[in-house]
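> forwarded from #structure-qc
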């Protein structure tokens, strides 16, 4: 299934007015669902919200990132602040993960 984090992230990006967004997804099943709305039914309300967000006047690109290769997300998830269920937005990269961001941008 599709995590709520995708919806939360896209809503935050929309509210901040970002015209181009890359949604990095580590689940092939989630990618399939997000790219093919013909399989939707009324029970997938989070999917309807995600599809609505994707159809708005902006560019949302979906990228599949295999979980074992996405070290940046893994590092952020392990930060001491990860115990909180609140959304944490970093306007600038943290020093502790900057080298991972630089590595992933290059590759």
């Amino acid at each position: 299934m599709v995590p709520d984090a995708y919806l939360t992230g896209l809503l935050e990006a929309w509210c901040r007015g970002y015209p181009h967004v890359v949604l990095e997804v580590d689940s092939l099943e989630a990618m399939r669902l997000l790219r093919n709305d013909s399989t939707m039914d009324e029970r997938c309300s989070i999917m309807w919200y995600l599809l609505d967000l994707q159809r708005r006047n902006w560019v949302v690109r979906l990228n599949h990132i295999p979980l074992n290769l996405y070290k940046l997300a893994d590092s952020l998830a392990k930060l001491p602040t990860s115990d909180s269920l609140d959304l944490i937005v970093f306007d600038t990269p943290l020093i502790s993960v900057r080298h991972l961001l630089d590595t992933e941008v290059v590759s």
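QC bot note: The helical segments are 4-16, 28-35, 45-54, 71-77, 98-106. The beta strands are 20-25, 59-64.
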